[in-house]
Design goal:
The chain is of the alpha+beta class. It has three helices and seven strands. The longest helix has 15 residues.
Length: 153
């Protein structure tokens, strides 16, 4: 199972940037480059997706912390809740906007019930506790990002 999942991860890539309803949206894979391959055919690291929506300085949630992003007075309904707000200044490029000027609001797919490659334990009882988790693929994350945008409008 782990090898098939890694093949899917390789096929999906690590970054997807797109426009939706005027927002710059981004799905980024989270992993530590130093943990990807410790030895041949052994994969470690989180490898989960995170989803983000970039807002401009004219948006009401620009520079707000994720606990303060409450359209219509309530938290955004997105996978696992919001877990990130901030700038990205690491050279991500899009065709339409300078990403460095956007404030990103985001979520991750590394919660209870989510498959993450690092959550493999030597202890059988711990493995039983993690049974039933599912991998949230790129298509799932894109749908969640769009759902987030629809709530921001």
């Amino acid at each position: 199972m782990e090898k098939e999942l890694y093949e899917q991860i390789k096929k999906e890539g690590d970054l997807c940037v797109f426009q939706y309803k005027g927002y710059t949206c981004m799905a980024r894979r989270r992993y530590d480059q130093n943990q990807i391959i410790k030895e041949k055919e052994k994969y470690q690291g989180l490898f989960h997706w995170c989803g983000y929506v970039g807002v401009t300085n004219k948006h009401k949630f620009y520079l707000k912390g994720y606990d303060d992003v409450k359209p219509k007075g309530d938290y955004l309904d997105v996978h696992g809740g919001l877990t990130f707000t901030g700038f990205f200044d690491n050279g991500i490029k899009t065709n339409t906007k300078d990403v460095k000027k956007l404030w990103f609001i985001g979520f991750d797919c590394a919660h209870a019930g989510d498959t993450c490659m690092c959550f493999k334990f030597d202890n059988e009882k711990l493995n039983q506790l993690m049974h039933g988790e599912t991998y949230k693929d790129l298509n799932y994350v894109i749908k969640e990002i769009k759902r987030m945008v629809n709530q921001l409008d």
